[in-house]
Each structure stands twice: as C-alpha cells, then as structure tokens.
Design a protein that fits this description.
- It is a single chain.
- By secondary structure, this protein is an alpha+beta fold.
- It has a single domain, classed as 2-Layer Sandwich (Muramoyl-pentapeptide Carboxypeptidase, domain 2), CATH 3.30.1380.10.
- Helix content is about 35%, strand content about 20%.
- The chain is built from six helices and 13 strands.
- It has helices spanning about 1-30, 65-70, 80-95, 170-185, 195-205, 210-215; strands spanning about 40, 45-50, 50-55, 55-60, 60-65, 75, 100, 125-130, 130-135, 140, 165, 190-195, 230-235.
- The strands form four sheets. It has a six-stranded mixed beta sheet.
- The longest helix has 29 residues, at about 1-30.
- The chain starts with a helix and ends with a strand.
Length: about 240
C-alpha cells in the first residue's frame, strides 16, 4: 500500500511539473502587470520596466523552448509583442502550412543576457529560420538542448544542410509582415541581422525582391554567424 502511495505521489508531482513547464508561461502572462513597458538605454546596454512575455504558442507559431519562456527568456516591450503577434496573425491564412519558431528575446527586467551581446532593453527578437524538408515539405526546425535550442544548427551558403532547406519565401513573408505590423504599432525596425551570403538567397526569392530597400539589413559580420536565425532590433519611443 505504501509503495502504491509513493507511486501515486510521484505521478502527481510529474504531472504537475509537466503542466507548469507546458502552460506556466501562459499562466504568468494572465497575471502580469498591465503597466506600460518602458525601454531604457540600448540593446547592448539597457533595461526595461514592465516587459511582457510572448505566448508559448499560437495557430502558426511556437516558442523555441517552453522552459526558456517559463523562466523569462522571451520577454519584450509591449509594442514589440503586439508587433510579433500581429505579424503571425497576418500569416495564418497567407501561409497556412508554415509554422514559425521565435527564439530568445530578453529577461523581464532586461540587462545582461548571456550568451547574447545585446537583447538588453526589450527591443531585440531572434527568429529561427522557417524550414522545409529536403523533399520540399514545410516542417519545424527542432530546438532542444542537444542543438543549443536551435542555435547550433548550421546551413551552407545555399541555405541547406543534410536535413533541411531554409524556406526563404516564408522568411521574406514573415519579415514583410513584421514591417507592416510594426508600422501599425508606431514603431520601427532598426536592423535585421542575417548571414550576408544567405541574404542573397533571401533577396532572390519572389517575396524577397525589394526587401533590402524596405528593411535595413546588417552588412557587417556578426560576432556569431546568423544562419539558423535572424535577429531583429526595433526602435521605439516609450
């Protein structure tokens, strides 16, 4: 009887921990402060008051890590959150088969965000590249502890690796949607950081044509290669 009770208690604990990991971030969103966000300083030396959490999932997007979101690594300025979610909403019907993955953004209070050199004031967001299988079927880039939550995945200059192809059309559509959504929120895009060689592939895609004049892309090599994700810095007036 005692053994059965121990097993029952362990089962309850495991179920509770699973629920916390899976839904905890969204529970915290439900009780977060309604005070307006205020970004201070710069993306590389700053902080934020009343940052807002991004939802863990939606009809066409998921977080790179439910644990990462739970502990607060996906917090942004409220207008950045509205921009990100507005862009996904635009794409639900436009690209119904594509699932997007957002990655790290910053802490609830901003500040140093290892291993990133920026992401300090709620105005930076990483997005994992949308991908297809080698057969051309839309899929999701796996993000887990064994590939540094997606950040250690690598692509060649054509946007290909042994398992996946970067979906440049879906990526271009997303950046265009981000641009439109940001305009609606009255904020801007300061820069998009993406591997310079892969930018050529992006701009050669149907929806990528003219994208480089619509949005500013970094032309300087980043301290780490941005091939598996693209980093967007926003500008805002609090």
């Amino acid at each position: 009887m005692k053994k059965h009770r121990i097993i029952l208690v362990l089962a309850v604990i495991i179920a509770l921990l699973t629920a916390i990991v899976y839904w905890g971030n969204d529970w915290l969103i439900a009780v977060e402060s309604g005070a307006p966000s205020t970004s201070r300083g710069t993306t590389s030396d700053g902080s934020i008051d009343y940052a807002k959490r991004l939802p863990s999932s939606g009809p066409n997007f998921i977080t790179y890590s439910r644990v990462g979101s739970l502990i607060g690594r996906t917090c942004v300025h409220e207008k950045v959150r509205a921009t990100v979610l507005g862009a996904y909403a635009r794409l639900v019907h436009e690209l119904s088969g594509t699932m997007y993955v957002y990655a790290e953004t910053g802490w609830p209070d901003g500040g140093g965000f290892w291993p990133h050199k920026t992401h300090e004031n709620g105005l930076s967001v990483d997005f994992m590249v949308p991908v297809k299988t080698l057969n051309g079927e839309p899929t999701v880039l796996p993000t887990h502890i064994f590939n540094k939550f997606g950040y250690s995945v690598e692509f060649d200059a054509a946007g290909k690796n042994p398992e996946y192809l970067i979906d440049f059309e879906a990526m271009a559509a997303h950046i265009r949607a981000i641009h439109s959504s940001a305009s609606e929120q009255g904020i801007g895009i300061r820069v998009v950081i993406f591997d310079s060689e892969l930018q050529k592939q992006l701009f050669a895609s149907r929806l990528g044509r003219g994208l480089g004049t619509l949005v500013t892309f970094s032309t300087k090599p980043a301290w780490v290669r941005h091939d598996e994700h693209y980093h967007i810095d926003f500008t805002i007036r609090n």
